[in-house]
Amino acid sequence: MSSDIALELTNVHLTYPVRKSSPKSVKRLFSLFSRQKDEVTATLKDINLQIKKGDVVGVLGHNGAGKSTLLRLLSGIYQPDKGSVRVNGKISLLASLGTGFQRDLSGRDNIVLSGALHGIPIEKVRALVPSVILFSGLEDSIDKPLRTYSSGMRARLGFSIVAHLDPEILLFDEVFAVGDSSFRARSKQRIAEMVNGDSTVIIVTHNEQLIRDMCTRVICIDRGSVVLDTHNIEDAIKEYHQNSKDRDSKTK
Amino acid sequence: MDVYARPSFFRGPFISFQSIIKNRSLLSLMVRRDLKVTYGDYFLGYAWTLLEPIFFTMVFFLVFVILRGNPDKLLPLNIMLGILIFSAFSKTVSKGSSQLIRNASLIQQVSFPRELLIANVSGFQFVRLLLSLIIVPIYMIYMGISFSWTLLLLPISILGIILLAHGFSLMLCIIVVFVRDMNMVVDIGLRALFFLSGVFYSATYIPAEYLDYHLMNPVATYIEICRGAVLGDLSIVTPIVILRAIGITLLVFAVGSSMFNRYQNRAVIHL
């Protein structure tokens, strides 16, 4: 893989089990350890992508198209059944705020735990704690157990941890500004800094304006396949609308 | 760098071991978190690690010594050691086997070495067992039992039982994802094992012709090693019996870690 390529997917295919429940027959029990065709549905089909370092790529597609699965595959949570995924650099998936939070631990302890789970060395996380607390604006309650926090406070703490991750490749899955208006403004600014920096960024969102504001390339996904890969943002948004209309007309 | 590379089945134990060494800081943080969450909020805190075995020993003492009139003065100590070793095994396997399911949402959100979730449970139970064993020297002094060189065998019993439980947990947590019924099997199996492992009776009560069969169960052997180490009597746990238990433990760990590394990525899809 060339050194200016951050991510490369070659003929990637991923299947999901049709039923996740326990097997109801002995035959199915034995088939579980090998993926048989009648047990699975294709979630990603023959995906070929190359993403250069520093690219900011938006991923558009209706619910269930395979966008989040694609990000999980890139971050190493899922493995492909066929094909290869190559990653050149430290990668972070931001799929939710408050990853690994423990309600009985203090906000301070949760910063260390969540940061460490995101792959930051523990000493580095400890050094970042004051900055995370300052960003979150939760100085008064940071030593109280997380169970005493409101959902807004938890989201603020979660976003503040995420804002201090410094990966080379950043994958956003619908995780954007949270909290009150002043915190939202700071969050948006921090996201813009992350996107405009050296990082390679992939954003999964239904927010078209965000795609227009931040992305230089858009990939449209439909039923697990890449249907359009373009630098023309407006073309991609039109394709997304067209796909949505086609789906709606089929369901009526 | 390849995000995904399917490991060879036989490299499983080495991959697990390397992963734990590489991520020991995170593992230590997770174990300390669990200790804090489990005991931090209680008035008696870590004293519960001692109170629990003392309470159950008193119950067994009441049943076997007082109600049944057993004259064996060492029975309460034997029972206590049996309970400590068995509950470390039982709690590790019972919680470890459902760790992937219990942490499904975390696993789907962040990429980190998943064996840490299992090692976290084993590490927590290891620390808990060490804390619980503080009661043993106190009890030995109270009963006038002299401290013998055989106490050096105690680490074999402690590390052996935890590694055995860890190996079973690695194996079972994968199977439980595919076949949820396995949770019930684990529960029933552990209860049966409690009665089959000599927790509330010493192996000296077992007829000689059945003793070897009894000691083929590594849990029973580790309990007897612990008792022999504390009481300075190794007549039951011969070197061959000890080596056999260690061999079974290493085999279970090797199969468990190989299975885990081979099937964990497929299991994640099923969560």
How many domain modules of chain B? 1
Structural class of chain A: alpha/beta
Overall radius of gyration of chain B: 20 Å
- Quaternary assembly: heterodimer
CATH architecture of the largest domain in chain A: 3-Layer(aba) Sandwich
Helical amount of chain B? over 70%
- N-to-C SSE series of chain A? EHEEHEEHHHEHEHEEH
Instruction: Measure the end-to-end span of chain B.
Output: 26 Å
For the structure shown, list the relevant keywords:
heterodimer, A: 252 residues, alpha/beta, Rossmann fold, 6-stranded mixed sheet, globular, B: 271 residues, 13 helices, 73% helix
Describe the 3D structure:
Chain A is α/β, with parallel strands linked by helices and 252 residues long. Chain A folds into two domains: 5-90 and 206-251, Rossmann fold (3-Layer(aba) Sandwich), CATH 3.40.50; 94-197, Rossmann fold (3-Layer(aba) Sandwich), CATH 3.40.50.300. Helices cover 38% and strands 25% of the residues of chain A. Chain A has eight helices and nine strands. Chain A has helices spanning 26-31, 67-75, 107-117, 122-136, 151-163, 181-196, 208-214, 233-251; strands at 5-17, 40-52, 56-60, 82-87, 91-94, 169-173, 200-204, 217-222, 225-230. In chain A, strands 5-6-7-3-8-9 form a six-stranded mixed β-sheet, with helices on both faces. Chain A has a three-stranded antiparallel β-sheet with strand order 2-1-4, covered by helices on one side. In chain A, α5 (151-163) packs parallel to α6 (181-196). The longest helix of chain A has 19 residues, at 233-251. The model of chain A has no long low-confidence stretch (mean pLDDT 82). By secondary structure, chain B is mainly α. Chain B has one domain (27-270). Chain B has 13 helices and no strands. Chain B has helices spanning 12-22, 24-39, 48-67, 75-96, 99-102, 104-109, 115-132, 135-143, 154-178, 182-196, 208-214, 218-231, 239-270. In chain B, 42% of the residues are buried. The interface between A and B is large, with 42 and 33 residues.
